[in-house]
Amino acid sequence: MLKxxxxxxxxxxxxxxxxxxxxxxxxxxPPPQPRPISGSREMLQLYGVxxxxxxxxxxxxxxxxxxxxxxxxxxxxxxxxALVDIDRWTRNDVDVKQLAAxxxxxxxxxxxxxxxxxxxxxxxxxxxxxxxxxxAKFYRCELAVxxxxxxxxxxxxxxxxxxxxxxxxxxxxxxxxxxxxLAGEDAAAADPVLVAQRVxxxxxxxxxxxxxxxGLYDEISPRAELGARDRExxxxxxxxxxxxxxxxxxxxxxxQYSAVPLFNEPEKxxxxxxxxxxxxxxxxxxxxxxxxxxxxxxxxxxxxxxxDTVDSQNNPIVFCVRDLPPGFPxxxxxFETVRIPGFYFxxxxxxxxAPPGAADDAEQEGLVRRQLxxxxxxxxxxxxxxxxxxxxxASTTFIGLFVVGTFVLWxxxxxxxxxxxxxxxxxxxxxxxxxxxxxxxxxxxxxxxxPRFD
Length: 454
Prior knowledge:
The structure is a single chain. 34% of the residues lie in helices and 25% in strands. By secondary structure, it is an alpha+beta fold. The chain has a five-stranded mixed beta barrel. A hairpin with a 4-residue loop joins strand 2 and strand 3. The protein is elongated, with a radius of gyration of 43 Å. It starts with a helix and ends in an 11-residue tail after the last helix. Mean pLDDT is 83; it is low at 445-454.
């Protein structure tokens, strides 16, 4: 027994040591969490644009050579701003007059301005600038903003491809950018200068009226699957559809639409509002797991409806919608008549499992394959329900039809009977009647003279 005492003592010491460590760990305070970034100015400092660089922007003059370093650094920094931070920090309560009154107060702040773009030019830095800031090119945009159509200049990393460079433009737009200076010589001719990731384009269409940046369609991936490049456009489109009323979208899409162009000419359909009527075969809810999408748009789920139309030749068409009508069924096998207005997004290849017998090779059965389908985004389907069967109404209708049918049949028989009777009197009776005796006139007795007696 004594020979085991050292081992027992060692095990006891190890146990006591582990208990002591655990108690110390319980008493230890958790490491402090980093303080969240308060705003755009602090974010600029993290990317090397501190107050010294912001002060190099001089008010009352166009952008000069001494300010180019600060401009390049700001463009490099704004590219790395998260979209959720831009939406959170952007101020939409500041107009041009406020900027002109106190430009230093708002320098480095994210400001939203709306108006019309008048001209776009490409700026190409020197090769050393390209290498330092990964800045091959950027765009200088001349805008007319606010109700007064005040001039403003925006240096942006991206603009819509449809805008002609160096040509006069007049397109509705908006920008969320960092205010850096006033280029006007005095407050009466204030010319705000902003630095932004992109200038949003709101054309004179339904989507433009819903404040959907159509320029995001330029970033959509040509690949069939949904990828990171499609993410921003898809969710902005889903958010725009949520801002529209279902009845308003249906009012703007009267008549019948063909599904054929969606398959044959997908590039020409981007952003178009159409309404398709057909049979919904599947309706599944999709959860949104991205916290930034939930924070920016309030979208935590949407519904994916697979349908076919009369002219889709059994090829599926997929609608992603924000809401469903009350009581609308969900599942992989439904059969409901619907009419859905939506905006065309892209041709999407989703994965389906080949059913038994569908493949030529037995080894290919059950394998996952990719099915191409037009993908549209809408607000809510219109559920076209069949009229419920009313047995009492049906019985009453049947009895009424039976009485009317009986009366019509009796009328036909009666009319036919009268016709037969007239025919019998006119033809048959005349044919079988006995001949009348001839009259004296017919026998010629008047001309024979008096009888003779010999």
